[in-house]
């Protein structure tokens, strides 16, 4: 997945985003009852900005795939049920047979997440990944529409999932004894990813936190016991989260004019979650702080819900835009209830080009019918969607629609015709 922006860094002020990454091979299981621990929802001091969730081995039978095409799959629905009331909106959804990628962001970040693009690369039956697929994935993951076509040219790459790395050489008894005694470091040197990095310079560019948690595979379902079947598979860290930062110039005393790095990534947490036992894998999460110079400081479009007013059966919406914003006849404004799940979860919408009734350098107005808007005390949001940028470029603060709008409309409809 790639997200780029067409603006240069603006000033020296730095922003910090908290990104929570989840990887879980769910082995065709349905969602559990509670995901609070997985999503770090129990700690009010851990405010997240973005969730990136990757699931593997989802139920991919023919009937299930057809059902998921017509409706949201159970896992996507469950994550939206949990995160939407917390002001997160799903901004990306990629399903490829048994694989699922979901990205959620706090709604106030939407105007600054632009030109979102996705690309998937099949790697075999149900997308099962092997190390030999690494070069093919890097070759195939190209984003031809933009100025940064190759995945390795991006500032930040997050690489995560069930990578199927095992522990070599050590016997089952030694591995289990090391786990029981929490001597995880005794196993690191024989981890296949660690071994592969010694022979592959590109792999070495990907960083990972310390494996200070038990191997995440293979467990008996509905338990925390490693495999007790006849096969007695050797435990392994198959589920991993890695990242790669693009090399940046470093400011040196001899070159004071050389810019310092304008982004950095720090790992705050890298753990497994033993409490979840629906699968033979345990989920793994990584929490990061991304510090960066923002590429823009104000949205391209500013919605002005405080200036709402009605005219006959329509509600007028006012907004302004920056001088460099290039609009399109296919831009639209959506009206949403607070707690919206995704960008298509609107109550109503209007095409900007067809419904604009006034225009000036500083203020524009469009009208939207109130006939389809429910009479409610709920709060609403307005979002401006840019067709050129394929993203939301403006979002209002939450507001209520005064009930008098609907009362006035009812009176107008009841007025006798002369």
UniProtKB/TrEMBL annotation:
One of its GO terms (cellular component) is plasma membrane. InterPro entries: Endo/exonu/phosph_ase_sf, IP5, IPPc, SKICH. SUPFAM superfamilies: DNase I-like. It comes from the Eukaryota. SMART domains: IPPc. GO terms for biological process: negative regulation of glycogen biosynthetic process; negative regulation of insulin receptor signaling pathway; negative regulation of phosphatidylinositol 3-kinase/protein kinase B signal transduction; phosphatidylinositol dephosphorylation. Gene3D superfamilies: 2.60.40.2840, Endonuclease/exonuclease/phosphatase. Pfam families: Exo_endo_phos2, SKICH. Signal peptide: none annotated. Residues 15-296 form the Inositol polyphosphate-related phosphatase domain. One of its GO terms (molecular function) is phosphatidylinositol-4,5-bisphosphate 5-phosphatase activity. Belongs to the inositol 1,4,5-trisphosphate 5-phosphatase type II family. This is Inositol polyphosphate 5-phosphatase K isoform X2.
């Amino acid at each position: 997945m790639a997200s780029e922006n067409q603006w240069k860094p603006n000033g020296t002020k730095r922003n910090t985003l908290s990104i929570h990454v989840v990887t879980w091979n769910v082995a065709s299981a349905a969602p559990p009852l509670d995901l609070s621990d997985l999503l770090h929802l129990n700690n009010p001091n851990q405010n997240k900005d973005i969730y990136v969730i990757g699931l593997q081995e989802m139920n991919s039978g023919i009937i299930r795939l057809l059902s998921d095409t017509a409706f949201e799959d159970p896992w996507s629905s469950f994550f939206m049920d949990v995160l939407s009331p917390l002001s997160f909106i799903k901004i990306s959804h990629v399903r490829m047979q048994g694989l699922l990628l979901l990205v959620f962001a706090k709604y106030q970040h939407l105007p600054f997440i632009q030109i979102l693009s996705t690309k998937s690369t099949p790697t075999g039956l149900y997308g099962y990944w092997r190390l030999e697929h690494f070069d093919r994935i890097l070759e195939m993951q190209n984003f031809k529409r933009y100025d940064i076509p190759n995945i390795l040219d991006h500032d930040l790459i997050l690489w995560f999932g069930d990578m199927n790395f095992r522990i070599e050489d050590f016997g089952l008894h030694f591995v289990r004894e090391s786990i029981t005694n929490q001597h995880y470091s005794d196993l690191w040197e024989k981890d296949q990813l660690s071994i592969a990095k010694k022979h592959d310079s590109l792999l070495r560019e990907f960083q990972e936190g310390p494996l200070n948690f038990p191997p995440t595979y293979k467990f008996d379902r509905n338990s925390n016991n490693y495999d007790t079947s006849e096969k007695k598979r050797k435990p392994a860290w198959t589920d991993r989260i890695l990242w790669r930062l693009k090399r940046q110039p470093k400011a040196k005393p001899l070159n004071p004019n050389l810019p310092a790095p304008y982004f950095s990534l720090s790992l705050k947490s890298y753990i497994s979650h033993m409490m979840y036992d629906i699968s033979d894998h345990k989920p793994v999460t990584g929490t990061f702080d991304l510090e960066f110079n923002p590429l823009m400081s104000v949205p391209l479009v500013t919605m002005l819900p405080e200036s709402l007013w009605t005219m006959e059966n329509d509600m007028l919406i006012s907004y302004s835009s920056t001088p460099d914003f290039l609009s399109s006849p296919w831009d639209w404004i959506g009206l949403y209830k607070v707690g919206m799940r995704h960008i298509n979860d609107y109550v109503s919408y209007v095409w900007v080009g067809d419904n604009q009734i006034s225009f000036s350098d500083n203020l524009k107005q469009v009208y939207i019918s109130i006939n389809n808007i429910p009479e409610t005390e709920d709060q609403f949001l307005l979002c401006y969607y840019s067709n050129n940028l394929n993203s939301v470029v403006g979002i209002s603060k939450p507001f209520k629609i005064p009930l008098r709008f609907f009362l006035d409309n009812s009176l107008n409809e009841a007025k006798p015709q002369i």
